[in-house]
Amino acid sequence: ASDGQAGLQKVNNSIQKLKNSPGGKNPPFFLWRGTLQKNFFFFENNFAFDSGRYKILVNIPANTTCVATDLADDGTTCIGSWTCDNNYALDNGSCNSIVNIPANSTCASTDLANDGITCIGSWTCNIDFLLDSGSCKSIVNIPANSTCVITDLADDGTTCIGSWTCNTDFTLTGSGTTCTSITLDPGNATCDIFADDTTTCIGSWTCNIDYAINNGATCELIITDPGNATCDIFGDDGTTCVGSWTCNQDYVFSSGSCKSIVNIPANSTCETTDLANDGSTCIGSWTCDNNFTLTGSGTTCSSITPNPGNATCDIFGDDTTTCIGVWTCNVDFSLDSGSCKSIVNTPANSTCIATDLADDGITCIGSWTCDKDYTLKKSSTCERIISDPGNATCDIFGYDGITCIGSWTCNVGFSLDSGSCKSFADFFTELTTYEVKNFFSSTSKY
């Protein structure tokens, strides 16, 4: 056979013969040679072997599955019927995805599958229904002066499909069908007409007893005059006080009346039971604070000067015993860290220990030590220490019984020379050394 229509016809005729031939590993078709091999590709891709015969392949569309009994021997090639997969429907030879439309909606007629029922395209909500979060919900007609709850607005952001509430300053009336303006409560008044809730007023208010209208808007409590005071706001009648009373100068409010203020001095505290309502202004008795005492014939509180002991005060408070002036340490006492301490008279040639000096930094009130090169004689004086010349005996010792504070006498066989007690041998050695040094010094030049 040759290429072209004539060759294709011969191939088809041969195929018809092969349909009736037994199958096998090498069917007669594969023994053919020549240009027919060029058409083998066509045969191999359009037929499948099944139950001993070659059968025409069935090209199935996407989203479909071949009927199990119509699969070729290879278990995958379809040679017969097929069906659309789950969630797909047949439409004009294709399997298109099924669109699950919500309740209260209708599929576009051009988007119905072959069965005329299943929707595979667009749809719209029915009349009086609107799309919201993928569902068609019933439209709610809300009354004037009301607002739909935000979470109950449809996808268009304006149509209400659920709950609504009356706007601010409006309340439900007409058994929940209308929103009527609320009549503001002036407080301390009685209303003549109420809304559905039986508590919100939509009529008129009348002030209760002991209350008066102010500026035609509020019912204010009539405030009783506390005496010695001035009112800042009067009711509409011009005489009834509905504001605040302010106590006059030098008066403060306490327990319903304006009472005279008691000016207490510095460093004093009012008795708790004599404080006005503000908790700070005194209207009665007071006492001086801790560490303060009465002075000026009971008009002032002065600081108490602590007694350092062993001292005399120059100024006293009203009680004539408490010091408010200056304490002066008595004779033989000196001030140190707030106390008058006994002065310690240190002997000559001694120094007070730094930590035992009084506040003036000079007076000693404690321990002292003898200066350098001095030592205690008995326990009250410091005597100069006499250096030991060696080979000598002291006649007077200090308080420690060791240190010499008297005179040294050279022992027998020793004589004092240049501050030291020396023996005859010491003199002879020094003399010989001197002569030898002079000899060599005088002969060195020859």
Describe it for me?
The chain is mostly beta strands and 446 residues long. Strands 1-2 form a two-stranded antiparallel sheet. Mean pLDDT is 87; it is low at 22-38. Helices cover 9% and strands 30% of the residues. It contains three helices and 38 strands.
Summary, kept brief:
With 446 residues, this protein is mainly β.
Note the main attributes of this structure.
446 residues, two-stranded antiparallel ribbon, 38 strands, 9% helix
Report the radius of gyration as a whole number of Å: 64 Å
What percent of the residues sit in helical stretches (DSSP H or I)? under 10%
Low-confidence stretches: 22-38
**Strand line-up in the sheet with most strands:** 1-2
Which of globular, elongated, flat, extended, rod-shaped describes the shape?
flat
User: How much β-strand is present in the residues?
Assistant: 25-35%
* Class of secondary structure makeup: mainly beta
The chain-level mean pLDDT equals: 87
Q: Kindly, what is the distance between the CA atoms of the first and last residues, rounded to a whole number of angstroms? A: 156 Å
Compile the SSE list and pairings:
Layout lengths: L4 H15 L20 H5 L2 E4 L2 E4 L7 E3 L15 E3 L3 E4 L2 E4 L7 E3 L15 E3 L3 E4 L2 E4 L7 E3 L15 E3 L3 E4 L4 E4 L7 E3 L13 E3 L3 E4 L3 E4 L7 E3 L13 E3 L3 E4 L2 E4 L7 E3 L15 E3 L3 E4 L4 E4 L7 E3 L13 E3 L3 E4 L2 E4 L7 E3 L15 E3 L3 E4 L3 E4 L7 E3 L13 E3 L3 E4 L2 E4 H20 L3
Antiparallel strand pairs: 1-2, 3-4, 5-6, 7-8, 9-10, 11-12, 13-14, 15-16, 17-18, 19-20, 21-22, 23-24, 25-26, 27-28, 29-30, 31-32, 33-34, 35-36, 37-38
